[in-house]
Amino acid sequence: MPAAAPRSGDAIFASVEHVNAELFTLTYGAIVRQLLTDLEEVDEVNKQLDQMGYNIGIRLIDEFLAKANVSRCVDFKETAETIAKVGFKMFLGVTASVTNWDADGTCCSIVLEDNPLVDFVELPDTCQGLYYCNVLSGVIRGALEMVSMKTEITWTRDVLRGDDAYELQVKLLKLVPEEYPYKDDE
Amino acid sequence: MAAAAICSLFIINKSGGLIYYKDYGSAGRMDTNDSLRVASLWHSMHAISQQLSPTVGCSGIELLEADSFDLHCFQSLTGTKFFVVCEPGMPHMDALLKVIYELYTDYVLKNPFYEMEMPIRCELFDVNLSQAVQKDRGAFLGR
C-alpha cells in the first residue's frame, strides 16, 4: 500500500481547531510573569521555559508525525526544512525559513519573521537577559530528541532584545538511534 | 455472534515495555504476564528483523501472516509500536493502526497527567478506541 503523501503545513493548520490568538498570547504572558515572580532570576526563568518547552516537545512530536504524514527525513537539512515549513506552520501558523548552513550540514538557523507569542510584548529593563520565547527552543529540542537527534538550540536574534527578527540556531550534536543490545560483549 | 474485526491490540513503548493491551475476542485471551512477555518478544523480533533485513534502512516487520491470524505492526518514528492481531486476510488494518496512533497522540499524549513511557490508563483513550474499533468492525461486516 503506497504511503500517504505528506500534508502541507497550511492544510493541517486549516484542519485543526483554532483558538483565539489573544488568549494564547495572554496565557503565555501569564506563564512568563508567574515564573519571573516565583523564580526571580532571569536565568532560572530561561531554564524553566526551556524545560517546559522540552516537556511539550516530547509529546508534540507524535502529534506532528501523525498529522503531517512525513516519512523519515534523509538528512538534517530535510529535518530543518520540515520544522520550518511544516512544523511552525502547523502549530503557530507562521512560516519560518532556514538559512546559514555550515559546511557539515549539522548547524543552521531558523528565522521567524512573525511570532504570535510576542504580540504586544515589550521587555522592561529589569528583564534584559530574558529569552521570552525560550519555550520554542525547548519544544524543538524535545521533539528532535524523540526522533533520535540530540541538538543544541540557542537564540541568535531576538526582536524583544532589539534585533530585526527571531533567529534560532539549531545545532545537531549527535544521532542516537535506538540500538538493540544484541551483542553481549558490549 | 459476529466476528470481531481485531483479536487484540498491543502498544509498546520505545524500550519494549507493554503500555497498553486490549483483547477483543475470547480466543487467544492472555493474562497480564503473558501479554508482557509477548510484547517484549515482539519488540526483540522487530529489532532483530531490522538487523537481518537485506534492505538498507529497513524499519522492521510490518506484517506477519500465519495460518490462523495476521499481525500488523506500525512503528512511529518515535519508536512506539502499535500492533494488532487479527483474522487472516483482514483488510485496512494499516488504516486502523494509523487511527489508533492518532487517538494515542490525542487522548494519551495530550493528557498532562499521563507519564511518558508508562502504562496507559486514560479512560478517554479507551472510550474512543472502542468506538474506532466498532466502526471498523461495522465497516467490515457491512461489506
Written overview of the protein:
The complex is a heterodimer of chains A (186) and B (143). Chain A is an alpha+beta fold and 186 residues long. Helices cover 45% and strands 16% of the residues of chain A. Chain A has five helices and four strands, in the order H-H-H-H-E-E-H-E-E. A four-stranded antiparallel beta sheet of chain A has the order 1-2-4-3, with helices on one face. In chain A, a hairpin with an 8-residue loop joins strand 3 (149-157) and strand 4 (166-175). In chain A, helix 1 (9-15) runs parallel beside helix 4 (76-92) and helix 2 (21-39) runs antiparallel to helix 3 (42-68). Chain B is built from three helices and five strands; from the N terminus they run E-E-H-E-E-E-H-H. Chain B has helices at residues 32-52, 93-108, 123-141; strands at 6-12, 18-23, 63-65, 70-75, 81-86. In chain B, strands 2-1-5-4-3 form a five-stranded antiparallel beta sheet. The mean pLDDT of chain B is 90. Chain B: Belongs to the TRAPP small subunits family. TRAPPC4 subfamily. Chain B: Part of the multisubunit transport protein particle (TRAPP) complex. Chain B: It is found in: Endoplasmic reticulum; Golgi apparatus, cis-Golgi network; Golgi apparatus. Chain B: This is Trafficking protein particle complex subunit.
Mind sketching the topology for me?
The complex is a heterodimer of chains A (186) and B (143).
Chain A: H1 9-15, H2 21-39, H3 42-68, H4 76-92, E1 96-99, E2 107-112, H5 134-146, E3 149-157, E4 166-175
Antiparallel strand pairs in A: 1-2, 2-4, 3-4
Chain B: E1 6-12, E2 18-23, H1 32-52, E3 63-65, E4 70-75, E5 81-86, H2 93-108, H3 123-141
Antiparallel strand pairs in B: 1-2, 1-5, 3-4, 4-5
Helix pairs in contact in B: 2-3
